[in-house]
Design goal:
By secondary structure, the protein is of the alpha/beta class. Helices cover 34% and strands 19% of the residues. The chain is built from 19 helices and 25 strands.
Length: 554
Amino acid sequence: MKTDIEIAQEAKMRPIAEVAAQLGIGEDALEPYGRTKAKLDLNALRDLPRKAKLVLVTAINPTPAGEGKTTTSVGLADALGKLNKKVVLALREPSLGPVFGVKGGAAGGGYAQVVPMEEINLHFTGDFHAIGAANNLLAAMLDNHIQQGNALDIDVRRITWKRAVDMNDRQLRSIVCGLGGKPNGVPREDGFDITVASEIMAVLCLATSLTDLKARLARMVVAYSRSDKPVTAADLHAEGAMAALLKDAIKPNLVQTLEHNPALIHGGPFANIAHGCNSIMATDIGMKLGDYVVTEAGFGADLGAEKFLDIKCRAAGFAPSAVVIVATVRALKHHGGVAKADLNQENLQALEAGLPNLLQHVENVTKVFGLPCVVAINAFPTDTAAELKLVEDKCRELGVNVALSEVWAKGGEGGKALAEEVIRLCEQPNNFRFCYDVEDSIEAKLNAIATKIYRADGVDLTPGARKQLKQLTDLGYGNLPICMAKTQYSFSDNAALLGAPKGFRITVRNLKVSAGAGFLVALTGDIMTMPGLPKVPSAEKIDIDENGVISGLF
């Protein structure tokens, strides 16, 4: 059986100008990066009206068994193309941290991939490097301001801005910097975030223009003064230089699927730390140029989909037409208590025990957000007819259809049934609404997400978080949406509680403002903004030969 990278390397890609031409994009709006990648000039496409149906692909809570959300997204786009629909795929860019860590790449799999797979997964067009440089420029200007007299009276114990690197490196989570005497800065505690957790990543993905980007960068809070006043990037006069570093990174990237459908891949905020969606600008361009836009949100629907709908759609004025919830029989059995080694064996009892995880996501989409949805079962050869029928029967009890997706093995041809159901759903009226009113109090919004989406009994704030809540409200940040930083593995804030747990509460231990992104971040559990590498990282398997052919990437 061929590996993902072998399938991708055998692909016959079209010149990127031909892919752009399918959407009516001329050379005046195209900035090629070689033969098979390009950036799009936003100014040339800005005034077009939105016309596409927006389809969100999300999933159950992820498991070690894998769900295949990106693979399903790519395959669905190719299937819509096979049904003669003008389709645009809109995805996030992969982070080097997971690529070299445990998760691998994020370009799909099998015969449902975006290409050039290796370049997308490695450096692509340099967007993440530009974001890291802008992040670290701001950090350097902040420390330099303190070194040069600290006119803003910054409290060095209350600096909230960290440095960033796009790599899993636990050694950098907590550091002491500025050692070596007065010429080398002021000694203080510091730390690194992974680049995809930087607020600049979230800012870039929620900005609507270069002007908006610069204004959002200016609003970012980096520290507090000794008199409790927030210190912003504008106070340090840093927003202009940061925006200059991001002048190309702000432009969406155009590539193609294995079946030559256009794919816009741009931005990549983590969904358990940030809002987990590709850029508004890429989705917006897709909606102006296609008839259908297929996009995905990170991790399960409790994180990525909730933030896509409550943060991104609210900010951009998007109204989705349909939602696809991806699941596998294997993953549902894992939620039912089966060990990874035993997932290939038929186990209807465990499947039934794990199904509430899927069904709660379905109910959240249909009843909380008012959107039609279809469940896509990502097929594995070990799935039995009895197991598939059980999933189908339980979903139909909620009025939701199930489509078997075989896109990994068959590409777009294996997603036709899913695509036909998506088309049907897109023609139905829906009652899209948000989970909460943004003008509600911070505590009310936290409780709305916890009780409606997670089905928790409520939210508890630590004394420190309650003090932060009052301060943020007093500073005028109380009317911002909430970005929950929570484990992806459970509806709860405890990664070990699988399925659809009941009788728990969510503990918020820290609240901070991302004023540039335009949301409040609520940290729960033991969520960290700098992951570490596993015992055997994926990097150990990646290699390159004398001809430049890469192996081991997935």
